[in-house]
Amino acid sequence: MNIIITIAITAFLVLYAGLFKARKALLPLTLTGLLVALGFVAYSWNNPTTYYTMMRVDNFALAFSALSILGTFFIFLLTDRYFAEGSDNVAEYFTLILFALTGIMMMVSYQNMSMLFIGVEIMSVSLYILAGIRKLNFASNEASLKYFLMGAFSTGFLLFGITLVYGATGSFDLTVIQQYLVNNVHSVSPLFYPGVILIMIGLCFKVGAAPFHFWVPDVYEGSPTLIMTFMSTIVKTAGFAAFLRLFAGAFEPLHDFWAPALVVIVVVTLCVGNITALFQKNFKRMLAYSSISHAGYLLFSLVVLTVNSASNVLVYATAYTFASIIAFGVLILVKQKTGSDQIDSFNGLGKRNPLAAIVLTVAMLSLAGIPLTAGFVGKYLMFLNVMEDYQTILVIIAILNALIGFYYYFKVIVAVWFIDGQDIVLNPSFLYKIVLILSAIVTLLLGVYPSLILNLI
Amino acid sequence: MELLILIFLPLVGALITAAIAKQNASKTIALAFSILTLAATISVLCKFTPDASMQFVVNYPWIQQLGINFHAGIDGISIITIILTNILVPLIVLSTFKHVYKNANAFYALILFMQSGLLLVFTALDGFLFYIGWEAALIPIYFICAMWGGKDRIKINMKFFVYTIAGSLFMLLGIIYLYLQNPANNFDINAFYALNLDSHQQGWVFWAFFIAFAIKMPIFPFHTWQPDTYTAAPAPGTMLLSGIMLKMGIYGVIRWLLPVVPQGVQDWAYLAMILSIIGIIYASVIAFTQKDAKRLVAYSSIAHVGLIAAGIFASYSLGSGGIQGLQGVMVQMLSHGINVVGLFFVLDIISSRLHTNKIEELGGLAKVAPQLAITFLIIVLGTVALPGTNGFIGEFLLLFSVYNYNAWMGAIAGLTIILGAVYMFRMYQKVMLGTTNDLTITFTDIKGTEKIVLYTICVLIIVMGVYPKAVLQLSEASVQHLLEQVNQKLTGLN
C-alpha cells in the first residue's frame, strides 16, 4: 500500500512542480519518488500483507512491482534531452506516467476484481492521454483515438466478464471465487463460463494478443517513442501479472475449460506477430509486431500451469523489458539524428557508434532468444513449461516462430554492422549511456547466471 | 582446473583482444593466446592417460533450480577434437598475418570467442552446457562470415544462420525431452545414458538430434547452405567452418547420439547410411564440374564428411567389431581438419595475390612458386589419401567398416574416393602445372608466416601418415568403451 501511496504522491508533487515552472526539479523528484517506492518493495519483501481483502501484497506482487518501477525508472532516465527546449507539457508527461504506474501497482497486487478494474482504468486513462500528448501531431492523435476506442471496448468486455463471474459466485474476492470453484467443481453456474471467456478477451486486448491486437501497431507507431517504450514493456508486464493472478490463481480449477481457448490464442498470436513483423520496414512497427509475438510466448506460462508459471513470466518479462528499453533508447538517439525510424536508418551505425551498436546487438540477440542472453532463458523456461505437459506440437510451432524471429531481429543487426550507411554520430548523454550499459549488463548477467531471479517468487 | 583454464583462456584472450583496438596488436595478442591455449593443451595431453575414463572432470552447480551443472571432462574422444581445435586456431590466426582486416580487434576476438565455444562443445558432459557451447560457437562465426565475407555475404550467411539454428533448436527440444524423462532432473550425460526409452521415443529423439548434427556436418540433403557459405566467407572463416566446426556434428553423433538412443540409431542407421553415401556421390560429381577452386574444395569436403558419417553408422551397426571404423572416424576428423585448412589456405594465398580462384584463369604456378607447389602437393596427397599421408589410415579404416556393413555401399564409397583423387589432381594440375599466363607470371612464392603455416601442416600430414598410432592409441580405449556401452544397452533392451 505504501508503494502505491508513494507513487501517487510523487505524481502530484511533480504536477505542482510543473505548475511552478520548476522544470529542473522534475526528473530528480520523480526518480527519488521511484527510489523510495523501490525501498518499500525491498522492505516488504517476504512479508505479505493484505489490505481489507482488496489488495494482497505478496512476493508475486512485489516482484512485478519492482520490475515495473525499475523499468519506469530507466524510461525516465531516457527523458534526458528527449524534450526540446521550451516544450511545456513535460510535467504532464511525468505525472501521467506515474499515474499509469499507480494503476499498474494495483493490477499486480489486486485481491478483489473491483481493484483489478480500477487499476486497469487508472492505467488506461493515463495512457490514452499519453498516446495523444503531441496535440499537433496527426499520428499521435490517431493513436490516442484508436487506443481509446479499442481500450474502452475491451474494458467493456472485462467489466461484463467480472459481472457474470460475480453473478455466479456472489463475490469479487479472488479467494472466495476460487473456493466456490473448488466446492462446486461439477456444478459451476453456467454464468461463470462466459464470464471467464469475456475476462480473458478483455485482458488479451490489454496485453495485445491476437486476434485482439489490431490496435497495437498503429498505437505504438503513432505514440511518442518514450510512451511506446512504456506501453510495450511495463504495461504489457502488468497485464500479464494481472492475467496470472486471476487465471493461475482464482480460475485455476477451471483450467481444463479455458486452456484450449488460450492455446488457440497463443498459436494465432505467435504466427500473426512473427509473420507480420517479418515484412516491416519500420523499426517501431517491427517491434510492435514482435511485442505481439512475445505476448504469445508469455501466454505459454498459462497454457500449462505449474508452480513455476509466475516465476517464468517474471524472468521472461524482465528479459523483454530490458532488451526493449535498449532498443527504444537507441531508436530515440537515431531518430534525433536522422529523423527517421525505418530500419534503414540504422545502416552503418556500428562504424561510428560502437557502444550503441553493441548494446543494440545484445538487445536483439536477447529478443531473438540466443543463448547467454536473458531472452534465451525466458524462452527456454517457456518451452520447458509446455514440454512438461508434452504439448510437442505447440513447442514445434513456437520453435518455427522463433526461427522467423531470428530472421527479423537479425535484419537489424545486419543493418547496424554489415550495411554501409550515412555516417551519423550519436552523442548519447551520460544518463543514456548509463541506461544502455546497465540494461545490457542485466541482459547478459541474467543470461549467464539466471539463478539470480529464478524462483524468486 | 586445467580444463577450466583450457576452456576460458581463449575467452579471456577474446576480451583482451577486443579491448585493444590496434591492427597489429590484436593480431599478436590473438596469436599469443591461441599459442597459450595450445601450450595448455599440450600440458593436458601430457597428463592424459589413454584409458576409457573421463579425466580432468569439473562439475560445478550452475543454474541449480533448473538442474544445470557446469559439468565437463575429457576422454579419448574429446581429446582428439581438442587437439584439432587448438592446433588449428593458432595456424588460422597465423594465416591471417598478411591480411589487413578492418576492426581487427573484433575479428580476432570473435575467433577466440568461437574457440571457447568449440572447446565447450567438445568437453561438455551436461546437455544444457553442450547446447550453450553449440550456439556460442555459431554466433561468432556468423559475425565473422557476414562482416568480413565476400559477395552476397549477408544473404548467404542469413541462410546459414537460420539453417543451423533451426537444427539446434530441434536438438534443444530433444535435450529438454531427455531432461524431462530423467528422474534425477538434471542434464547429466551419464543419466541420459542410463535412460530406458522405448524404440518409439528413441526414434523421435534420434531425429531431433540427427537433424542438428546433419546440418552441421553437413549430410545430404541438409548441405545446401554449405558451398555458398564456404565460398563467401573470409578465408579464416572458411577454415574455422570446415576445419573445426563441422567436427561438432561428428562429435555430437558419437557422444550424444549413439550412446543415448542406441535403439533409435539402430532403427535409422540404414537411412542415415544411404543419405551419407548419396552425399558422397553427389558432392563428388558436383565437385568435378566446379570452375571455382574454393567451391571445389567445399564440395570435396561434403564428400569426405559423408564418408566419415557413413563410417560412424557402419561401425555402430557392426557392434563391437566396429572399433576400427570409429577409430577411423577419429583419425579422419583430425586429418580432414588439417588438410582442408591447408587447402583453403593455399587458395587464400592464391586469391590474395591474383584476386581469383577460377581454375581456368590459373596455371603454371609451380614454375614461379616452387615452395607453394611442393607444400600444396603434399596437402593434396593427404586429401586424396595416399598411403604415407594422414588421410590414408582414416579413409582405409572407414572404407573397411563401410564395406563390412554392406559391400555395395563400400564399393560405391570406394569408387568416389577414386573420383576424389581425379578431381583434386585435375585441379592441382590446372592451377600449378602447365605454362604461366599473363596473370600467374606475377605470382610470388610463399614467405614468412605463410611458410610457417604450410610447412607445419605438411609436417603434421606426414608425421600422422607415418605414425598414426600416436593418434589411434589416444582414443582406442574410449571408443571401445563407448561401443561396449552401446551394446550393453541394446542387449539390455532386447
UniProtKB/TrEMBL annotation, chain A:
The record lists the membrane-crossing segments as: 25-45, 60-78, 90-108, 114-133, 145-166, 191-214, 226-251, 257-279, 286-307, 313-334, 355-378, 390-410, 430-452
* InterPro entries, alphabetized: NADH-Q_OxRdtase_suN/2 (IPR010096), ND/Mrp_TM (IPR001750)
- Superkingdom is Bacteria
Keywords attached to this Swiss-Prot or TrEMBL record, sorted alphabetically, are: Cell membrane, Membrane, NAD, Quinone, Translocase, Transmembrane, Transmembrane helix, Transport
The enzyme class is translocase
One Pfam family linked to the record = Proton_antipo_M
The leader peptide range reads none
Under Enzyme Commission nomenclature, its number is 7.1.1.-
Could you tell me where this protein is found in the cell? Cell membrane; Endomembrane system; Membrane
A GO CC annotation recorded here is: plasma membrane
Q: Which GO biological process categories is it annotated with?
A: ATP synthesis coupled electron transport
Give membrane topology per the record. Multi-pass membrane protein
Task: Give the primary localization class.
Answer: membrane
Per the record, the similarity remark reads: Belongs to the complex I subunit 2 family.
Q: How does it assemble?
A: NDH-1 is composed of 14 different subunits. Subunits NuoA, H, J, K, L, M, N constitute the membrane sector of the complex.
Q: Which NCBIfam families match?
A: NDH_I_N
Q: Matching PANTHER family, A to Z?
A: NADH DEHYDROGENASE
Function in brief:
NDH-1 shuttles electrons from NADH, via FMN and iron-sulfur (Fe-S) centers, to quinones in the respiratory chain. The immediate electron acceptor for the enzyme in this species is believed to be a menaquinone. Couples the redox reaction to proton translocation (for every two electrons transferred, four hydrogen ions are translocated across the cytoplasmic membrane), and thus conserves the redox energy in a proton gradient.
Protein name as catalogued: NADH-quinone oxidoreductase subunit N
Q: Which organism is it from?
A: Pedobacter insulae
UniProtKB/TrEMBL annotation, chain B:
| GO MF terms held by the record | NADH dehydrogenase (ubiquinone) activity; NADH dehydrogenase activity; ubiquinone binding
Transmembrane regions: 76-94, 106-125, 131-148, 160-180, 204-225, 237-258, 270-289, 296-318, 330-351, 372-393, 405-425, 452-470
**Biological process, per Gene Ontology:** ATP synthesis coupled electron transport; electron transport coupled proton transport
**Pfam annotation, one family:** Proton_antipo_M
Keyword set includes RNA-binding: no
Q: Which PANTHER family match?
A: NADH-UBIQUINONE OXIDOREDUCTASE CHAIN 4
Q: What protein is this chain from?
A: NADH dehydrogenase subunit M
Q: Which organism is it from?
A: Pedobacter insulae
